[in-house]
Design goal:
heterodimer; A: FAD/NAD(P)-binding domain; FAD/NAD(P)-binding domain; Enolase-like, domain 1; 7 domains; five-stranded parallel β-sheet; 39 strands; about 30% helix; elongated; B: mainly beta; Rieske Iron-sulfur Protein; four-stranded antiparallel β-sheet; three-stranded antiparallel β-sheet; globular
């Protein structure tokens, strides 16, 4: 018989836990859910847009009543639980319904705090918490003129804005002197107040409510200083308190909230708790993003997988009031250990404040222009050292010398702006999918819209759209898991591979408790790369964990045929090689012969079974694989240099050939391109390559981290060296450091930006010992790697099965 | 109507891999999972006719090499929010020999 799981509280945190549980252990429990409200589960955070008339109740439903039926969940909607009996393991509702449990999940959320002033119980005094409150406010907008909101925090201002949209006169009463003081400093709070005043909102600042007056129904407010205000409706939005009554009655340890440990268990180990009702490591949370992290951990433990800990969250806030851009995150007040960066332009309504400690961003407030919010938030979560970015930090990511997408402002984009060029997905499609399908994560958006699911270069933009659409609902995970099969990040996995000496994909999965038996396309390829990069002597390649291009050593084309691109060392070729290519093209009736961007010749439209024959012919003319299909060293592009050019300073072609001989056949986290230019005119475009050399009269400039493609990034100058031997050593060391440090599928450009230029400079330039270490490891690995995969297959008969049908059935 | 054809030894198909059976009308991809189960589907992704035999096999699914659609090997249906279906053929292993029913 299945165990019984009962959940009290049909809200976002609890239902998220149930959904996560259904994903990983669909048949483990008979599930029963109690909810006070007579609805399914809805997105409470979007009540403000409902009030403002931007959305309807149907728009914000996350789980409809039918959803519960489809998933065999018994829903007691509209039944308030009044008792938990921990001895009998039962819960009882107001109407007498009793349910037994084996495990209990308490997700009772929070309730609004009502200031206990005289008159607080009069008709027309409400809070802003659920659909009923929204209905009351909407009804009031039809019959009354003047509303008052007590509390100038996030929720209070959203309520005030909503009622103003319906034509009411709204006054906000605030105890402090700064609006939203939990999210804003004085300067930005004052700017916010001015914008809202311009929209027509009235304020009573530093006003303490003494009494709510009226005969049965509210008619006014009296303040402590003796003044008063007429009003027809009072909305109290002065904060929330964890709803812990039920847990307290049941004898569970509570302080401000229900106290839980890192596995979301209360002091009774069969009783779990998630959401706004819990107190974790002394903190309570009122935003939805941390609740989802709790949900994930809780579901994992309910499913008895026993991994995953909740270790607290950093949160950010955005105000959902149309026309006002405001972003706040982390510690924005600072203290004597912190420093501040401030930019203020009052007449344009712009304000930015960043708080730093030990060269790390720990808090920020943005007003007027919040497009960098996502970037700052990411820097805060990852704890990245910002020393290298210091002079540009305040201006934002778009000023990092990246001419790509950084400067786009999501809010200003029209709905038909194309975001994902690979799959033709526009901003409007993504926003619609997020709101109608109830999506919260990048993975969900990828699954539903395909945006950023191909080349991934628009991932940042999609994340910004998520954040823009959901406001504080959205939070990217702190360290992103490698894929859905694990909670471990790339770094954790690589560290385990090194420290535990894991030399096969299976070892990694076993050692790190993978959630799936044989992984997914994302982790299989990453793990196959990681074990080989760490243990090049011992690890075995798993061909089934390579993409078809690397299995077939040719690039699959849209019609299922392949391309063949032989290596041309340093972009040099000979009549003999050209003749061989021409012969092959004619012999196998190859349709297209094309010159590539990396100075190679490509043959296109080759049937798979013909590949080994073509390779054999090319081998005979001395040509080998160009690895144009792999996450590998691709090409070294050169100009003719001082051999021919009257401006050339060094022999760039000869150096290019040496570099290609050094680096060919090396597997990488992503494709990797080199170039050598013979003079600063830079005809080989070395400054948009992963590793570029620009020859100068005194030697060689070494450049790193550039790429062309979608997001053009010019290189950083690493250093100058004097000899060709130095170039080879620095190049090998740089490559090996990249191979051992970058995430799989991370090119050098984003890698350099993620880890910071100084770490690379420290490792490859300043520390000779480290440079020699990495160079030595590179040479060792290359000794094993430098075998022509074409010859192995065409001449030595390796992996024959890859190129032959198993059977031909005659009709 | 059944039309069983022996296609080869189980060991001729790599674990977590696939081989192609050519017929006069189309290709059929025969898959072997990590647990040695065998499945056969028409070698065409419902999306843009990508050769599923060249994809990554994981669990009882294959991910197409062209645009990453994931297809159930049991039903031939596209998984997740994608919609579409490719033909499924019954496949069995007896004494290490793989046969499929061309129907």
């Amino acid at each position: 018989m299945k165990e019984k799981l009962v959940m009290i509280g049909n809200g976002m945190a609890g239902m998220r836990t149930i959904e996560e549980l259904l994903k990983i252990a669909p048949d483990m429990y008979d599930i029963t859910v109690f909810g006070d409200e007579p609805y399914g589960n809805y997105n409470r955070i979007l009540l403000s847009p409902v009030l403002a008339g931007d959305k309807t109740i149907d728009d914000i439903m996350l789980n409809t009543i039918e959803w519960y039926e489809e998933n065999n969940i018994k829903l007691h909607a509209g039944k308030k639980v009044t008792e938990i009996n921990r001895i009998a393991r039962t819960v009882t509702a107001q109407d007498g319904t009793v349910e037994e449990y084996d495990r209990l999940l308490i997700a009772t959320g929070s309730k609004p705090f009502i200031i206990p002033v005289p008159g607080h119980d009069k008709e027309g005094v409400i809070s802003f918490r659920d659909i009923k409150d929204v209905d009351t406010m909407l009804a009031a907008t039809k019959n009354f003129k003047h509303a008052t909101v007590i509390g100038g925090g996030l929720l209070g201002l959203e309520a005030a804005n909503g009622m103003m949209q319906h034509g009411m006169n709204v006054t906000v009463v605030h105890l402090g002197d700064t609006l939203m003081e939990r999210q804003m400093d004085k300067v930005s709070g004052t700017m916010l107040k001015k914008s809202l005043q311009d929209k027509g909102m009235d304020f009573r600042m530093e006003a303490q409510t003494a009494e709510i007056t009226g005969n049965g129904r509210v008619s006014g407010i009296k303040f402590a200083d003796g003044t008063s205000l007429e009003t027809d409706l009072v909305v109290m939005a002065v904060g929330i308190r964890p709803n812990i009554e039920l847990a307290q009655q049941a004898g569970l340890h509570c302080e401000r909230g229900i106290v839980v440990n890192d596995t979301m268990q209360t002091y009774d180990p069969v009783i779990y708790s998630v959401g706004e009702c819990v107190q974790h490591r002394g903190e309570t949370y009122g935003l939805v993003a941390p609740l989802f992290e709790m949900a994930k951990v809780c579901a994992n433990h309910l499913a008895k997988m026993g991994i995953g800990l909740y270790e607290g969250s950093v949160t950010s806030t955005k105000l959902k009031v149309t026309g006002i851009d405001l972003f706040s995150a982390g510690d924005f007040t600072g203290n004597e250990d912190t420093e501040e960066m401030v930019m203020q332009d009052a007449s344009s309504g712009l304000y930015k404040k960043l708080v730093l400690r030990n060269n790390k961003l720990i808090g920020s407030v943005l007003y007027g222009d919040t497009k960098e919010g996502a970037w700052y938030f990411q820097l805060m979560r990852t704890g990245q050292d910002i020393s290298d970015l210091r002079d540009k930090l305040l201006f934002g990511e778009s000023h990092l010398g990246d001419s790509g997408h950084g400067g786009d402002h999501i809010g200003l984009m029209s709905d038909d702006t194309e975001i994902c060029g690979c799959n033709g997905v526009c901003k409007g499609d993504i926003v619609k999918a997020i709101t109608t399908e109830g999506l919260f994560t990048l993975d969900e958006v990828r699954a539903h819209t395909k945006a950023s699911a191909s080349c991934g270069s628009c991932t940042g933009l999609v994340e910004q759209i998520l954040e823009f659409t959901l406001g504080s609902d959205y939070e990217a995970p702190e360290a992103k898991p490698l894929c859905k099969c694990t909670d471990h990040s790339h770094e954790e996995v690589r560290q385990a591979i090194r420290e535990r000496k894991l030399t096969s994909i299976n070892d990694v999965r076993r050692s790190l408790n993978w959630k799936t038996e044989d992984g997914c396309p994302a982790c299989r390829m990453a793990l196959n790369y990681y074990v080989q990069s760490a243990w090049h002597n011992e690890a075995q390649d798993d061909p089934q964990s390579r993409f078809i291009n690397e299995r077939a050593h040719a690039n699959i084309q849209k019609d299922g045929r392949y391309s063949v691109i032989p290596r041309m060392w340093g972009g040099m070729t000979t009549p003999n090689e050209l003749r061989a290519i021409a012969n092959v093209a004619e012999k196998y009736e190859i349709k297209d012969v094309h010159l590539t961007g990396g100075q190679r010749i490509g043959l296109y439209g080759v049937e798979k079974e013909v590949l080994p024959k073509i390779w054999a012919d090319l081998n005979e003319a001395g040509m080998v694989s160009g690895h144009a299909y792999g996450k590998a060293m691709r090409t070294v592009k050169t100009c003719v240099g001082k051999q021919w050019c009257r401006f050339g300073t060094q022999d760039s072609t000869a150096l290019g050939i040496k570099l290609e001989e050094l680096t060919w056949a090396s597997w990488m986290p992503h494709k990797f391109k080199l170039a050598v230019s013979g003079c600063p005119r830079n005809c080989a475009e070395a400054t948009i390559k992963d590793f570029g050399v620009v020859c100068v009269d005194s030697g060689y400039e070494l450049h790193i981290g550039g790429n062309g493609g979608i997001k053009v990034r010019a290189t950083d100058l690493l250093c100058n060296v004097a000899t060709e031997e130095d170039v080879l050593e620095y190049c090998g060391a740089f490559i090996q450091f990249y191979r051992e440090d970058a995430h799989y599928l991370e090119r050098t450009a984003p890698w350099v930006e993620r880890i910071g230029f100084s770490r690379i400079e420290d490792t490859v330039v300043k520390n000779e010992e480290k440079r020699k270490h990495y160079y030595k490891r590179f040479l060792e690995a290359q000794k094993i790697a430098q075998v022509d995969p074409w010859k192995e297959r065409a001449v030595d008969g390796k992996a024959k099965y890859e190129f032959e049908s198993i059977k031909v059935v005659q009709a | 109507m059944s039309n069983w054809v022996e296609v080869g030894q189980l060991d001729d198909i790599p674990k977590q891999g696939s081989r192609v059976v050519e017929t006069s009308d189309y290709n059929i991809a025969v898959f072997r999972t990590v647990n040695d189960e065998v499945f056969a589907v028409k070698d065409e992704c419902p999306h843009k006719q990508g050769p599923l035999s060249q994809g990554i096999v994981h669990d009882k699914k294959v991910t197409c090499p062209l645009h990453n659609w994931t297809i159930s090997l049991e039903s031939g249906e596209a998984l997740g929010p994608d919609e579409g279906c490719t033909n499924v053929f019954v496949a069995i292993v007896e004494n290490g020999v793989v046969s499929i029913d061309l129907g």
